[in-house]
Design brief:
The protein is α+β, with helices and mostly antiparallel strands. It has one domain: 2-Layer Sandwich (Nonspecific Lipid-transfer Protein, Chain A), CATH 3.30.1050. It is 41% helix and 29% strand. It has five helices and five strands; from the N terminus they run ααββββααβα. It has a five-stranded mixed beta sheet with strand order 3-2-1-4-5. Strand 1 and strand 2 form a beta hairpin. Helix 1 packs parallel to helix 3.
């Protein structure tokens, strides 16, 4: 199985080559925590007009996304709809749900 943090890093890097996606994060300053079951926790830090994936736990996360590691990889790859996953209980969000939804806009 692929590492969810590595997959997110790759997807974000590719997404930010598109100027419209760069515009979406311009001026944002937030951190989203990810806790995949069966893999190490990591977080996405959006600041200074860039997005960086870091291993570990953040004390400043506005939301925490909890799901299986495979579902997380599938969501990042566009194979699993995050809204459907949330509605079916496969994705849990702790904290600000609205902030967590901003990730979907960046992933396209």
């Amino acid at each position: 199985m692929e590492d969810p943090a590595t997959v997110l890093e790759e997807v974000i890097k590719n997404a930010l080559t598109d100027p419209s996606n760069k515009q979406k994060i311009k001026g944002l300053n937030k951190t989203l925590q990810f806790k995949p079951s069966g893999a190490d926790p990591f977080y996405l830090e959006i600041a200074n007009d860039t997005a960086t994936v870091k291993k570990g736990n953040s004390q400043n996360a506005v939301a925490t996304i909890i799901m299986s590691a495979q579902d997380m990889v599938d969501m990042f790859r566009g194979k699993l709809n995050p809204i459907s996953a949330f509605m079916s209980g496969r994705l849990r969000v702790e904290g600000n749900l609205f902030e967590a939804q901003s990730l979907a806009a960046l992933l396209g």
